[in-house]
Design the sequence.
């Protein structure tokens, strides 16, 4: 039997979207120590906003994606500056429950604005062609999504490892008080990181809009997947988020070839195996 | 002077309301309530009781052991599914009504309930074993993932036990025992069944948290490193707490399913797992009765919300804002609020006795100022002098 290239590519494109959200989740956790439960609903808001801007207002797809990302980033900034900032010194579980309150609030507000129906949109015209593969044709848009995931990975790595801002972020992440003493404006840095993390979630949702129907349940599904990804990869590790996301994406797309319904359980099975043999995640503890 | 103030507090504020008397009054109210309440209110009160047990069982793990589970719906629904299968499938298939005669519905319920609790306890053993390898938010994520795996299994009906998204209908019939007719489907009767399970259940939990086991749980919550240093097997303690918490949650599950007449995958969804979290935050996790008070607040707030169509559409928003407000401004929830209010009032009484109206007003002013400082204070990092 030949390699199921189509399924592999489908899995990688799913993994790429999961990576964008897991990356934001991991970034915010790694620097702020906050696990943002609302990351899934932020992804969903990104998708809704993009569809509304692209289809409703008839604007350019690329502009709509950026608008989606920025709107979600601003929502994240409001969350951080208005609320989460007040509870950094509290029990991390309090902070988790606080972000959970935002899941309730944001999903209620999105339902108010966009209703219960599902939304879909077309891929941009530039990418509405297919690539011929040995076993069939493959939509170029999915290849593009894979590329975005890789670019995001490389870009974030570059910023964190090679730029001044990245150095500040890493310093604050390893010792907040020391960084503050050395003159780093920690609250502003936190807000910035929260913006970037939320922006990534928004972009993930925006890019997903042409690939899946966006419904009020989208956020719930995505946050569960993202949690599985970061548990497998190790929370706070970007390499881990990447590998974890690709593993989950591939298990989802290849699982159906083995047993029907396997796509739904294999991710959980993989997570349990990781927990048994390597509780800190495949790439946890490092970074 | 101190003894004097204590005496004043007892006289003025407690006014003879000892703990025992409060319990006695609550007990009488709970016993009499269904006889005077309209049918729907009896139903609501039954739910309050079940939610109180659910949240208190959850809080054994959260408030006492310091582990936040976002997956308790798995045990809540798990026992419910076992009960449903026993009542709907196993008992009719085995033809047990020939053996137990007119008492069959009651026997089926009791057997189903016991098996349900046993099942979730056994389920909690491996799930807990794996979950307690992680702590804090990692623990919350892993329990969430496990429960969503369970939800998926129930929804897809992998083993033909759950009837997919429709779920199983569980209507308990009427039984006759020693000449008494008992209709378990009757709301008032079932209320008393629930009361007869919840009260001993809560008492067992109360004894549990006051026992050496409960104290070790608190030690693990406060500082797991030190607990380990004095010889506590931290992971095992957490595991035991997890399994016990799941068992009590399962007990609540076999009460809620016959009340709702149905068990469907929604009961295993993470939104159900979030209920004891919200309830415990509202009620306060550091007092034993906090989750129970939270259950009262939660359920009656939902009822009040349903009275206003505009609010009903946005109940998620209402609860989200409420949780946010409690977390930001009332750290210890309803239970904390009650105890803070009583000590504030006694302070007010003392000041009034010492300095008259001026003293009392000064007390009000200073606590308002302190509250403003706490609620809207600057973040430590912003460099307040």
Sequence:
């Amino acid at each position: 039997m030949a390699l199921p290239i189509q399924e592999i590519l489908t899995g990688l494109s799913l993994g790429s979207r999961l990576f964008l959200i897991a990356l934001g989740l991991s970034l915010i956790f790694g620097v702020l120590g906050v696990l943002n439960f609302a990351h899934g609903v932020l992804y969903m808001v990104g998708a809704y906003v993009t569809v509304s801007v692209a289809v409703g207002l008839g604007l350019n797809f690329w502009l709509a994606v950026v608008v989606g990302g920025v709107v979600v980033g601003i929502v994240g900034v409001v969350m951080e500056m208005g609320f989460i900032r007040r509870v950094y010194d509290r029990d991390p579980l309090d902070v988790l429950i606080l972000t959970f309150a935002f899941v309730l609030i944001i999903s209620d507000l999105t339902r108010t604005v966009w209703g219960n129906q599902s939304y879909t949109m077309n891929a941009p015209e530039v990418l509405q062609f297919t690539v011929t593969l040995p076993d069939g044709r493959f939509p170029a848009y999915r290849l593009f999504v894979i590329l975005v995931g890789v670019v995001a990975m490389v870009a974030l790595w570059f910023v964190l490892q090679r730029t001044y801002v990245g150095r500040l972020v890493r310093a604050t992440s390893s010792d907040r008080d020391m960084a503050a003493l050395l003159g780093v404006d920690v609250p502003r840095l936190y807000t910035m990181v929260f913006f970037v993390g939320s922006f990534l979630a928004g972009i993930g949702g925006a890019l997903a809009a042409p690939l899946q129907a966006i419904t009020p349940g989208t956020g719930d599904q995505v946050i569960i997947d993202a949690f599985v990804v970061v548990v497998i990869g190790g929370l706070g590790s970007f390499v881990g988020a990447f590998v974890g996301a690709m593993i989950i994406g591939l298990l989802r797309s290849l699982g159906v070839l083995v047993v029907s319904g396997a796509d739904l359980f294999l991710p959980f099975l993989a997570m349990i195996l990781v927990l048994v043999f390597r509780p800190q995640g495949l790439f946890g503890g490092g970074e | 002077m101190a003894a004097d103030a204590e005496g004043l507090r007892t006289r003025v504020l407690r006014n003879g309301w000892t703990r025992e008397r409060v319990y006695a009054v609550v007990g009488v109210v709970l016993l009499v309530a269904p006889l005077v309440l309209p049918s729907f209110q009896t139903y609501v009160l039954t739910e309050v009781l079940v939610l109180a047990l659910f949240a208190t069982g959850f809080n054994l793990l959260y408030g006492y052991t310091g582990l936040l589970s976002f997956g308790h719906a798995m045990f809540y629904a798990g026992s419910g599914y076992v009960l449903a299968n026993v009542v709907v499938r196993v008992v009719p298939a085995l033809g047990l009504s020939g053996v137990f005669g007119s008492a069959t519905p009651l026997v089926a319920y009791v057997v189903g309930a016991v098996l349900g609790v046993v099942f979730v306890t056994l389920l909690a053993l491996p799930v807990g074993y794996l979950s307690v390898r992680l702590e804090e938010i990692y623990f919350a994520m892993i329990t969430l993932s496990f429960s969503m795996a369970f939800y998926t299994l129930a929804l897809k009906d992998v083993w033909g036990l759950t009837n997919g998204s429709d779920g199983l209908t569980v209507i308990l019939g009427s039984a006759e025992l020693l000449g008494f007719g008992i209709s378990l489907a009757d709301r008032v009767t079932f209320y008393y069944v629930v009361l007869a399970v919840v009260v001993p259940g809560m008492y067992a939990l109360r004894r549990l948290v006051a026992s050496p086991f409960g104290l070790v749980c608190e030690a693990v919550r406060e500082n797991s490193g030190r607990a380990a240093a004095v010889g506590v097997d931290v992971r095992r303690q957490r595991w035991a707490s997890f399994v016990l918490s799941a068992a009590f949650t399962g007990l609540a599950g076999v009460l809620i399913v016959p009340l709702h007449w149905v068990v469907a995958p929604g009961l295993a969804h993470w939104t159900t797992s979030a209920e004891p979290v919200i309830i415990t935050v509202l009620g306060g996790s550091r007092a034993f009765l906090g989750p129970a008070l939270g259950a009262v607040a939660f359920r009656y707030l939902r009822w009040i919300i349903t009275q206003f169509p505009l609010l009903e559409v946005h109940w998620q928003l209402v609860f989200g804002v409420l949780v946010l407000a409690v977390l930001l401004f009332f750290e210890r929830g309803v239970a904390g609020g009650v105890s803070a209010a009583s000590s504030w009032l006694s302070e007010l009484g003392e000041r009034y006795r010492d300095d008259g109206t001026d003293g009392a007003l000064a007390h009000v002013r200073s606590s308002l100022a302190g509250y403003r400082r706490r609620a809207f204070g600057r973040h430590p990092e912003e460099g307040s002098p």
